[in-house]
Specification:
By secondary structure, this protein is α/β, with parallel strands linked by helices. It is about 40% helix and about 20% strand. It has 9 helices and 10 strands. The strands form 2 sheets. The chain has a 5-stranded parallel β-sheet with strand order 3-2-4-1-5, sandwiched between helices. It has a 5-stranded mixed β-sheet with strand order 6-7-10-8-9. Strand 8 and strand 9 form a beta hairpin. The protein is globular and about 70 Å long. The N and C termini lie far apart (about 65 Å). The chain binds S-adenosylmethionine. S-adenosylmethionine binds next to helix 5, strand 7, strand 8 and strand 10. This is Ribosomal RNA small subunit methyltransferase I. It comes from Microbulbifer halophilus. Belongs to the methyltransferase superfamily. RsmI family. Pfam families: RsmI_C, TP_methylase. It catalyses: cytidine(1402) in 16S rRNA + S-adenosyl-L-methionine = 2'-O-methylcytidine(1402) in 16S rRNA + S-adenosyl-L-homocysteine + H(+).
Length: about 250
Amino acid sequence: QALLYIVATPIGNLADMVPRAIEVLQCADLVAAEDTRHSQRLFSHFDIDTPLMAYHDHSDDRRTGQILQKLEQGQTVALISDAGTPLISDPGYRLVREARGRGIRVVPIPGACAFVAALSAAGLPSDRFSFEGFLPAKSGAREKALQGLASDDRTLVFYEAPHRVADTLDAMAAVFGGDREAVIAREISKAFETVHLAPLEELAAWVRADRNQQRGEIVLLVRGADRRPSAELDGEAQRVMKLLMAELP
Ligand code: SAM
């Protein structure tokens, strides 16, 4: 039976590679990878010599077609990205969609994912959250996107490029308010791993004051808008409740 494996790979520390991922990559007939040169390093480390083929979401239909054809011939294909879980701000959606449409079994091999790791260590509410991926690069579009999230009461999670992080934190402080709590989670599982929580205005100043905080790979998390109804609203709700209760038989 044709099988398409979606395989998570480490986000920094190679020791985070799960044994099942190594086994699947060793046994597959073909591995579709975002950047074959990058993945070659992972392959050498784990003694994997399965043929690699480049695959991006903007790969032409011919490339997607070639992979689907191999699957339809009964071959086992594994998809990986440069780091972490494929399809999470990474290529793969088109391939998974097309494969499932053709009745091909798609099997995930769970492993590292930067935003899940960041959320697990941030100290912000994690019962409900919204993963927003990368914000638009241009400041106007970024501010508009932030405004659309200002009253969301879930923890907001973003990926951000190091050269934009200071400007993004300033923009967040301006739109969400400087006293809203936020976290920068940087270089997770690597030598300079940092997880720092502070109100947005302080966090922006802290990052601006230290160029090292503007390097490497970064997840930003922002506490959602206050969930507690204001005391005023509480009073009003109580008054309405009393009126309604009085009407009940
Ligand atoms: N698919 C990946 C995943 O599962 O997390 C994400 C790929 S996305 C193209 C790359 C972004 O993920 C980086 O710009 C950064 O925001 C975040 N990221 C990846 N590795 C990270 C790490 N070790 N520490 C913090 N953030 C990381």
